[in-house]
């Protein structure tokens, strides 16, 4: 994946139980963020950061989509609890995470396991990669995405 290349299209089920297709969002920028697990501290920091910066994101003509392996039901619960103004998408088989290169080996407490590598992508109105931040902290993810949209 390279800046300027077409972002891989996908269709996932949202927290509302409806299919969301990336290509249906052409004509507006999309901040696509990948996070390991709903309702955990780092993921809540990242997701709430996008919520709290929603006026700036919206003013930039962008949409936000969050992707994790969680079930649509778990995502719906978390979205309601935190009042996110954007959809969360369920990727239980991590197919989209793999497509975007953000499913990989992680280490915690000396053990290795496979999981989502926290990241975000800004996709332009034509469906091309405008910015990519892989393996980023929750706070930096918000900071960099909002700054990029503000250009």
Features:
about 150 residues, globular, alpha+beta, Glutaredoxin, two-stranded antiparallel ribbon, 9 strands, seven-stranded mixed sheet
Question: How does this structure look, described?
Answer:
The chain has 151 residues and is an alpha+beta fold. The chain has one domain: Glutaredoxin. It is 30% helix and 31% strand. It has 5 helices and 9 strands; from the N terminus they run E-E-E-H-H-E-H-E-H-E-E-E-E-H. The protein has helices at 41-52, 54-59, 72-82, 95-99, 138-149; strands at 11-14, 19-21, 29-34, 62-68, 87-90, 103-108, 111-116, 119-123, 129-134. The chain has a 7-stranded mixed beta sheet. Helix 1 packs parallel to helix 5. The model has no long low-confidence stretch (mean pLDDT 93).
Q: Can you describe this structure in just a few lines?
A:
The chain has five helices and nine strands. The protein is α+β, with helices and mostly antiparallel strands and about 150 residues long.
Quote the average pLDDT.
Answer: 93
The main sheet comes to:
7 strands, mixed
The rounded distance between the terminal residues' Cα atoms is 22 Å
Strand portion: 25-35%
Portion in helices: 25-40%
Individual helix count? 5
**CATH superfamily, please?**
Glutaredoxin
